[in-house]
Fold non-specific serine/threonine protein kinase.
Amino acid sequence: MEKKVDSCSPTGVLEDFFKSEDFERSHSCKEPNIDSANERNSKQGSRWRGLAQLFRTKSKKSLANLQSFGSFRLSLRSNSMRENVAVAPDFLANGNSFNDRSPRKVFTLSELQTATKNFSTENLVGKGGYAEVYKGRLPNGQLVAIKRLTKGTTDEIIGDFLSELGIMAHVNHPNTAKLIGYGIEGGMHLVLDLSPNGSLASLLYGSKEKLTWDIRFKIALGTAEGLRYLHEGCKRRIIHRDIKAANILLTKDFDPQICDFGLAKWLPEQWTHRTFSEFEGTFGYLAPEYLMHGIVDEKTDVFAFGVLLLELVTGRRALDYSRQSLVLWAKPLLKNNNVRELIDPALGENYNVRQVNIVLLAATMCIHQSSIRRPQMSQVIQLLNGNPNSLMSKRKRRVPFFTKAFHEEI
């Protein structure tokens, strides 16, 4: 006998959604048909409210109903277009990830409270506009970072949670943060592997022992590899939108891992860019075209990466306490090839001159005012590896440090 599904149950809500035209449309990731969008708003809104109700339930048992459905995709309304949110509960449950030490799981609120000493302030390691991050320890001794979403209405928090969860479920690279699990009891939580050395920002600006040049260059290369993966290596292009020193975690071997996908967005193949009316991100890292027109694409991340390279060389913040921009401070020095004034005094003479010139060359290209003139991350990696062929000949003549980086003897 065929088992009937209660349309009011969590399972029924999802099955209704999977059978809908909205699911098929969002799964195909095609640009929306504006003429027919209004006709679907009411139906889509009711399905979203039903799913939101599912996540409002407080027990792990409710979310367990999702595990049998495999990957699913929600299409949420935004101001300018439909926001595709891809979620893969089966992928999470099976632990099919780069980190096989600990299968991804659903955590109960009591487990998260025990791990963080009831979310005590002494375990609070980061706090932003949208979330709080706590250090925790699992029963097996594994250290974790638990991100708790805090800003917005219940539906907004659920939407942000699903969006970030969906992206992280599909990200699998040594230079991206590792998702261990998640929890929905008592709030929306993401559980990640805790990097022993903390963030790049904490070591670059908050540590008495300054990072050596070798480690800084390793961080530059690894972060570039992680960004290239997001832009070119994933099944769907991912724009991170918040690349900064605080969002680069460092393993015990100082391998960088890009974290915090709270602002990350999918970019379908047929779309050249996305446009946003509300500004989100971190001042000092925001590309000019985003500030002026709300335009976001891969070059938005490239600009932020260029700022990060300047931070690694100079030891200065992207935006210091006097609100001075690192980019505006550095550009005249870059234009005049004034390398000595750009190098972090904490490094002394302990750095590789050729590598510094190469990093400054890459930074100069990445922070170009025109997004079209900025390189792709694959070109940046070639450049950092000492291959000048990634630059067009006309760029070589116009960019400072080219001769120093590739033709001068050390």
Confidence is low (pLDDT under 50) at residues 1-45, 58-102.
